[in-house]
Amino acid sequence: MAARRAAVLGSPIEHSLSPVLHGAAYAALGLHGWRYDRFECDEAGLPGFVSGLGPEWAGLSLTMPLKRVALTVADEVSPLATAVGAANTLVLGQGSDRRRRRAENTDVAGITAALREAGVRRVERAVILGAGGTAQAALAALRELGVTAPAVVVRDPGRTGDLRAAADRLGMQPIVIGGYPAVALPDAEVVISTLPPGAADAMTDHLMAPRAVVLDVVYAPWPTRFAAAAMAAGCGIVSGLAVLLHQAVAQVELMTGRPGPVEPMREALHAAVRARTA
Predict the structure, then answer these.
(1) Which of 4, 5, 22, 67 is catalytic?
(2) Is 207 left (phi over 0), alpha (psi -120 to 50) or beta?
(3) What does the pLDDT profile of the chain (278 residues) look like in tens digits?
(4) Whether residue 67 lies in the annotated active site
(5) Which residues of 78-137 form beta strands (DSSP E)?
(6) Domain 108-241 falls in which CATH fold?
(7) Could you state, in order of their start, the residue ranges of all structural domains in the chain?
(8) Which CATH number applies to 5-106+247-277?
């Protein structure tokens, strides 16, 4: 296969593990001419960066703060990315259509696969902490698992407009609970914290029953205080590393046309994390 390029963009980006994941995938798939880089890029810089890409580019992984603006630089937006209101992937066309840009969202697949890997199949009661772009992806993932009315715990219900709009597009009816962190978490089978590092620590006194599965999208340092408290309470825990892995697996398939090799990517990811914490 001809040499192609891909990269992850965001700000800050220097600690991104995406190059490790995609590089391991290219090696396992025998895509020796493929190259994956990282670039610092903010919202204002994304349109110019994308317009300057040559025909060798296969796709971009997009992290914060680019997931919403990604929709505006795409020629086509997938139904899922439209419903979520955010995209973490730009797939660039091939052949005569190489200039075409399609926005996709693999965060949903990442969350869903991470929970299923932990044994979660069907869910009736779920809680989401936070209301940002990752929370919107969590809504869509929970819909895949059968949830129609998850509880969403936030500080200020007045700042949940984007999440409510995403819920409407997804056909869901979230129950928004304000006053975080001074609220008790509703009983649930799954709890997903989409909060930034340290922000969920205040909820360690309000954990679920031992049967709950708790997913914390934060993965460094691991375990977070929130995840450690959940483990001590007897909950199953899922690291954000699992989400990172599985969303990248889906990206690899979108960009290369070949299924992402899960185990080689997982091994490379865990090796990189061990090296950083050694």
Answers:
(1) 67
(2) beta
(3) 568 999 999 999 999 999 999 999 999 999 999 999 999 999 999 999 999 999 999 999 999 999 999 999 999 999 999 999 999 999 998 655 656 899 999 999 999 999 999 999 999 999 999 999 899 999 999 999 999 999 999 999 999 999 999 999 999 999 999 999 888 888 899 999 999 988 988 887 666 567 789 999 998 888 999 999 899 889 999 999 999 999 999 999 999 999 999 999 999 999 999 998 87
(4) yes
(5) 89-92, 101-104, 126-129
(6) Rossmann fold (3.40.50)
(7) 5-106+247-277, 108-241
(8) 3.40.50.10860
